[in-house]
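Lecture notes, part 5. Sequence design as translation. It can be helpful to think of inverse folding as translation between two languages: the language of shapes and the language of residues. The source text, in structure tokens, appears below.
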């Protein structure tokens, strides 16, 4: 890229375009709108606890509470939600069979949401961590390692189950090899031609997921182990691009980079190299850092939240999953 160079100072004075709010708004290179934002929700059984340690302001919701929340954010202009279940501990097994139960928490909620707020776009995570005793995203083989090929068969069935309960977007977040391909083939075979696949293609093995694991009740289960044999090493950039290109070939409609804030270079790289929409997930640890620090009065809450979202957008994200969505939507509207 060639840049035209000015005759330097005083002919060039960069401050001119920064001199008033109207001017700054008019020349701002990045716009953020509520349509860019996706609200993740944690859902629970009626007899489970709402409080999530480490995520002040976010609760696990019952089916009815969720419906009320969705009605509110829909009025603010939010068009997409992602739902994550806290499966009761006694339903977690080594084979994750609750994931394929047509009356599991996710399926019940999907049916209710689609009946009451049919326009809302629903995104469901496809991974087994919410359903396994081990807290891993897949089932384990005899050596205790996640069994790739066995897991992707379950994920394909799980995707079909969610899609046939009217889930609009299937979001495999498990990082197994070939999962997008088998899910796409299975959905095609079942003639579910309109179900989108949002692939968590660049999912890094991050330490910032721990409040989320607490929300799902998988934190204790995974303790003493980690997800390094399937999630991407955070030192790698080219590997994330490679995974993204492979997932497009396998049939992904949208790609995801996760986490977001410390991974803006990856969002930019993938945006430049891929021609489909890019989502970024501002994860639970990123949420909690801003929330907790601002609660102690160290930083300003609203301004820091908006800055974090604008910067993710500036890096190239088309969609942003953020626990700040419901609040940010109010600020962006006013
Ligand atoms: C499950 C999943 C995780 C997140 C989204 N889907 C956790 C993990 O992989 O351990 C993290 C989201 C967050 O931290 O907000 N595979």
């Amino acid at each position: 890229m060639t840049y035209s160079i000015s005759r330097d100072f005083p002919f060039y004075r960069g401050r001119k375009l920064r001199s008033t709010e109207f001017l700054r708004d008019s020349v701002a290179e990045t716009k953020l709108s509520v349509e860019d934002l996706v609200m993740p929700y944690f859902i629970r059984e009626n007899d489970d606890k709402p409080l999530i340690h480490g995520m002040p302001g976010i609760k696990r919701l019952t089916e009815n509470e969720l419906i009320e929340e969705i009605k509110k954010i829909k009025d603010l202009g939010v068009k997409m939600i992602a739902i994550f279940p806290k499966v009761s501990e006694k339903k977690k097994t080594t084979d994750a069979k609750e994931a394929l139960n047509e009356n599991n928490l996710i399926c019940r909620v999907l049916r209710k949401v689609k009946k009451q707020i049919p326009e809302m776009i629903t995104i469901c995570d496809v991974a087994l961590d919410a359903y396994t005793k081990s807290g891993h995203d897949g089932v384990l083989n005899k050596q205790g390692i996640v069994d790739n090929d066995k897991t992707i068969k379950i994920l394909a069935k799980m995707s079909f189950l969610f899609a046939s309960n009217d889930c609009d977007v299937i979001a495999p977040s498990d990082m197994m090899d070939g999962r997008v391909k088998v899910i796409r083939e299975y959905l095609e075979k079942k003639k579910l031609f309109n179900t989108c696949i949002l692939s968590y293609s660049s999912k890094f093995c991050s330490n910032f997921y721990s409040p989320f694991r607490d929300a799902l009740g998988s934190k204790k289960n995974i303790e003493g182990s980690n997800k390094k044999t399937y999630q991407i090493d955070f030192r790698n950039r080219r590997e994330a691009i490679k995974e993204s290109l492979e997932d497009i070939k396998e049939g992904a409609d949208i790609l995801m980079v996760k986490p977001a804030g410390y991974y803006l270079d990856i969002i930019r790289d993938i945006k430049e190299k891929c021609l489909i929409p890019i989502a970024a997930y501002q994860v639970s640890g990123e949420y909690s850092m801003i929330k907790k620090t601002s609660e102690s009065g160290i930083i300003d809450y609203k301004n820091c939240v908006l800055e974090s979202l604008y910067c993710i957008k500036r890096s190239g994200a088309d969609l942003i999953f953020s626990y700040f969505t419901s609040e940010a939507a109010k600020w962006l509207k006013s």
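The translated text above is only one of many valid answers, since several sequences can fold into similar shapes. The pocket of PBG is lined by residues 125, 127, 129, 137, 173-174, 209, 212-213, 227, 283-284 (CB under 6 Å).
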